Structure formats: C-alpha cells, structure tokens
Amino acid sequence: MLFNSYIFIFAFLPVTLITYFLLLKFQKITEAKYWLFFTSLFFYAFGNIKYSLLIMCSILVNYFISDFLMKIKDSSKRKILFYVAVVFNIGLLCFFKYMDFFIENINWVFGSEIGLLKIVLPLGISFFTLQQLAFVIDVYTGQAKENKFIDYGLFVTFFPQLVAGPIVHYKEIIPQFQSKDNKVFRSESLSVGIFIFVLGLFKKVIIADTFAPFANEGFNKVGDLHFFSAWGTCLAYAFQIYFDFSGYSDMAIGLGAMFNIKIPANFKSPYKSTNIVDFWSRWHITLTNFITAYIFTPIVRSMPKMTFPYMMLSMFLAMTIAGLWHGAAWTFVIFGVLHGAAIVVHHNWKKYKIKLPTYVSWPMTFIFVSMCFTMFRAKTVGSALKVYKGMFGLSGFQMPKGILSTDFMNSVGIKYGPRMINDENLHLGMIILCLVLVKRYKNSFELYQGFKPTHKLALLSSIMFVFCIFGLNRLTEFIYFNF
Amino acid sequence: MTKFNRLFFIYFGSLFLVAYGLIVAVDPYDKLGINLFGFKTKAVASSRDNKFYMLESSKTNYEAFIIGSSTAHKYHTEDLERLTGLKTFNYAVQHTTPEDYVAIINHIKSKFSPKLIVLQIAFVDLDKNYETDKILYSSPLKDFLGETSKNTYVKADIFSNNYITLDALRDTFRVILINLFGEIRHQYLEHGNYIPQKDGTGPIEVIQFSHNNWKLDENRVHLLKSIQSESRSSGIKLVVISAPLSIDHYNKIQADDHMREAFQLYKKTAREIFDEFHDFTNENVKNYNTKEYFGNSTHPTRKYSTIILEQIWSQK
What we know:
The complex is a heterodimer.
Chain A: H1 6-25, H2 29-45, H3 50-71, H4 75-110, H5 125-140, H6 149-157, H7 159-162, H8 170-178, H9 187-220, H10 227-258, H11 276-280, H12 285-302, H13 308-326, H14 330-351, H15 358-377, H16 381-391, E1 399-400, H17 406-411, E2 416-417, H18 424-440, H19 444-449, H20 455-471
Parallel strand pairs in A: 1-2
Helix pairs in contact in A: 1-2, 2-6, 3-4, 3-5, 4-5, 6-8, 9-10, 9-20, 10-15, 10-16, 10-18, 12-13, 13-14, 14-15, 15-16
Chain B: H1 3-26, H2 47-57, E1 64-67, H3 77-84, E2 88-90, H4 98-111, E3 116-121, H5 135-138, H6 166-180, H7 218-234, E4 237-242, H8 247-255, H9 257-273, E5 277-279, E6 294-296, E7 299-300, H10 302-314
Parallel strand pairs in B: 1-2, 1-3, 3-4, 4-5
Antiparallel strand pairs in B: 6-7
Helix pairs in contact in B: 1-6, 3-10, 4-7
C-alpha cells in the first residue's frame, strides 16, 4: 500500500489509528501491539501478498536466532549462531536482489549463457534485512538484551518505516511502545503528525511527481541531450529523488508521531551541504549511521593498522558497498565509488588545511551530488556518460524549443534544438524555485522541533492537503521502493 | 482534540468542497453537461479529452473519420465530405502513436457505424524509442485501449474517472481565466476541425528531427495490423496516408545512413500492413516548399492537406 493513495489516507490510517488507541484506552496493550503488527503486515501485503511470507520467514528466523543468542553463554556457539544469522540475511538479500546481476557478470566475463532468474525484488527487502541484521549484531555484542516476539515483530514491521526506512534500531523504537506516556492518545502528537505527514505528502505528490516526467523524458532520450537539456535532466532528477525520498521519510515520521512514536530524522537539508561529508551527515542519515557502525567500523578494525591511508581505504570500501546496497547494477557501484572518492579527497583537503569559501564549496558539492545522482538514475553507465557529455557541452548548446522567449534567445545567439518535453518553462521555474526552497528554508526536522499548532499553520496544512488529494490520481511509487 | 486538529479538518473539508464544487460548476471537460457560468469555450484541456467529449455529446451521425497526430489536424472535414459524400469528423489529436489509434477507433466503433477511416501515420509512430503519450492513459480513451494494446500504465482506482485531479483543477482555472480575460489558446471547431490560421513567412523550420535511434516497434506493427484486419472484417474502408515531411526534413533523413534505412523500413512495413497506403513522404514534396504548404517540416497547412485528399480521391 502506498502512503500517497486514497485507501491509505482515508481508510487504512484512520481505522488503524482509532482502533489502536481504543485498545490502549481499554488497557488491551498486547492486543494493541498485535493489532499494529497485523495491520502493518496487511499494509505490506496489500497488492502483493506473496512477499508477506518472505518477510514473516525473515522475522521468525531472525527472532529465534537472536533469542538463542541471548540465552546461550558459550562464546563459540554464539559465534556460530551469529554467522548463521549474517549468512541468512546477506544470503536473502543476495538471492533476491543481486542474483541476476551476479549471473549477468558471470556471463559477461566467461561468455557463458546462464539464464537469468528474473526475480522480482521484494518490497523493502534492503530495509527490513538491514534493520534485522543490525539487531542481531546488537544482540551478539550485548547491546540489546530483551526480546519479546510481538515487540520484535512490531520493530520490523511498524508500517510507517517498513518499506523505505528510516532504518531504525530496536532501542530507538520499542522502549517508546513500552512507555506509559505513549499509551494514551495525545492530540498534540496528532497535530504535529498531521503537519509533518502533509508536508511529506506535498513534497512527494506535488513536487517530486512534477519533476518525474522531466527527468524520465531526459533519461529516455539521452542521445538527444544538449547542454541545457542535459543540465535540466540532471537537476530534475536531483530534485525528484530528494523530494521523493525526504517526502517519504517525512510521512513516516509524521505517521510515527500520530502513534506517539518518534522516528529518527533521515534528512536535514542535504542540499545545503558545503562538502561531501556534510552531505552524508544530512542525507539518508539512518543509512549513514548504519554504514558507519556496521560496515566502516568493522572494515577499519580488520585493517592491519589504524593509519590515515587505511582509514581512507576503509571509507572508500564502505561507500562502494553502500552504493551497491542501493541496487544491483554497475551504475550503483560507480555511484558509491564516486562518493567514496569524494570523501577521501575531502579528508585529504582537510588534512592539508585546504578550505574553500562557501560560495565555491556549496555549488561544487551540490553539482557533484547531482551529477552522482545522474549515474544513480541512468539505466546504464553509457547513458549516464551521454548525459555528462551533454552537461559538459560536448553535444552542442541548443536550447530545447519552448523555453523562454524565442526572440530574446535568438538575440543573444542561442540556437533552438528539438523540443524535449512539454512545459519546459514549468521545468525551469520548478528548478529555480526548488533551489531557493532547499537552500533558504527550514527543513522538516527543524519544523518538527519548532512546531507550534497555530491557526495559520492549520490553514497552510489544509491547503497543501487539498492539493495533494487532487494529485493522488497520479498514483506513483516512491523511488526508494526499488532498493 | 486540539484546536489545530479541528481547524485542519474544517479547513480541509471546506476548501476541498469549494475546489471540487468549482470544478463541477465549470465542468472543464464537458463530462457533466454543466456550464453554470455560461462560458463560451472550454477548449483548454488536452485534445484527446476535448475530441472525445465532442463526439460523445454530438448528435450528428458521422460516417467518416480522420485520425492521426497533430499532422492531421488540418484535414478539413468539408474536403472529405465533398470528395466522398460522407459526414466526417476530424479526430486527430496531438502526439499520437498506434496505441492512440486503437483506442480512437474502438471509441468510434462504440458509438457510430463508420464507413471510412482516413488514418495518417508518421515515421515516428513505429519508433520503439518514441514513447506513447502518457496523457492517453489518463484520458477517457484509456477505456478503449482494448486487448491488443499492451500498456504499462498503473490501473487507476475508483476516483480516477471523476474530477478529483490536479489537471481538472488547473483546467478549471484556465477555463475561467481564458473566458474572462484571455485569448482562446486551442480551439476545435465543429466536427473537430482546426481553427483557420494565417500562413507564416520565411523558411520552413525543420522540427522533430531527433529520432536518430529509430528502432522498429514490433508491438506497434502488431497494433497497426490489427487495425487493418478489424477494419476489413467490419467493412470499414481504411485509407492510410504517410504524413508528409518538408523537402529539407526528407533530405536530412536521406543524408543519414541509419535514418534512411529506418525510413525505408517504416514505409516498407506500412505498405505490407495496409491494403491502401499513400506515400506523401518522397521527393515530389519539393514542389511544395513554402509556408503556404507547410507550417513547419512535419505539419502541412490546410491548403496542402486539401491537395493530399484531392490527389488520393482523384486516383480512385
């Protein structure tokens, strides 16, 4: 089920929310948790029931392993059990997500003709697998000590964060479900929840989905892109993915708030970043935390020495793995490599005390990140290179027809090429508007922290919500559902 | 419940009702037959919607139809009526591919018993890289796509056919603004005819020459075959025209090896599919190399469109 659908907003959410608090009101605490667990499974299974078996199987295996890990004292047996859990989770991810990629590359290297399995990627597998793997690691290292099935099930399936994060830790969520204060309906939580949810819905339905056709058109015609259209395509996707994913995260946080659950922030104005490390501390924050704790740190520990070059190598490897986590294609690997390389460069600059002024470092970071997203979005590496070729002016400087005034452009010597899309002026206007929005205004996290339920804000939220309701007929999936 | 929550729900309910009420009162696509404000035109929406509803509300018993993309806009129904004696409707809409033709013909057949269909196809129609216009899948024609059209659009839910859409909201305001202050941007006359336009001046601009990755779309070939076979079995005479291109456009294609081969393949495929295929994309077009005949390299004027129809019927 999608957050941006009528059935979710007008049926699933009110029924789930009202029943949950009614059960709590009558002290049916365990029943309330089971209600939320089963409705979350229903949310996941809606439209594609077969993968709910997979998630149930994943939950049961991880639950029983972590339960045993808590009970067993013998360190060698614990180690074996721990590796079983790691192999199970990584194996699950590899089979469903990377098997065809692996076969394709085997075929390419050895000239073999092994048939592809054509497995449909189960929704949210990367997220729920990572979340559970992190829990098993926490149990193994003694950081998580209690484990009730319903709490564990709810931690994995709680519908606001089930499909595309934020990636949460057990200790961040379950104590909140256990807290007495959170077991009563709080209208102020509903207010902030509504506000943040509507904000996220607006980001997705009105902004991201308006950019989507521009980006799709550009990436479908990479061979025809000239300088302006290539930049238009690159920036359209950079904004689409930001508003799509941060919109989803806002909705998740807003929904969590409605249930008195604080889901951690996932975005803090990433396009305000003035360097690449700053970017990753603001973009998909929960993934960055996961990479740092569960990929970078173990790699560093496995290095022979804790020196600067080894640290850089570890960082580079961790980012490459993070790139591959996003998808099974070389474009994602290169996306990770580019970011890894940029982080290494940044740390070297820092080491040698090279500092750029903000008016250079901000556009440089923004353009670099946007160009990396081009690699992320392109169907093939070759397609991404064609977009870059256009962006560097190697395919000519024609202006797509329909943009700005023909007379003005002719007078300054700009030639018009073929029309790329309809509404080019809307595209240009949206890019300028969004640049201002992401650079100048407060982010959802700041708005959440400073939320005051005023008359004006109620009006603004309802206007945004009306626009969203009119936009729901477009019914599009979130980009991160593919990862 | 706090004041904020109450206000939010009250504001939302009121604003939604006002917006929806305004759409219904204006009825931008003429779906409901309401015109509370007595606006003169509602012709601001997509041509698919406009022509669909023109035909839905028409009381004329049309027997002949002109179908195609915007390149077929200028065929005047009077010309075809004069040549055939059949009451004609021009159902040409912008940015079409064979998926549109299937839906349009199915729509026509659901309401009329056509005797003649003049279908103008274009080189780009069979290009696999040329995407079907997504507007088709949100227009009322989507219900007429039929089995033969394999499309990938998300199946819309129960709300999709009503006026709760951003497009409807936008078009409502456009209808209001155009009727109160503006110029009518895009209007079809009776029988789907295009508004008369003055001939331009200067050289004919070569446009839409960006299909250098042209690749034959087998699915669309299949669709065109089904149009021909169903026309045959329904007793409809199908006359197919290859949309004319200006001589500069034609020469540009000939100068490029891949494009030239692709162009030949397109024409060969069309000839094999259709019983009656008229090719107006050849060197003879050099005799019509002024703005009197072409608005731009892919859009013939009314005058040239008349010449094409006359040439076809003079051969009969």
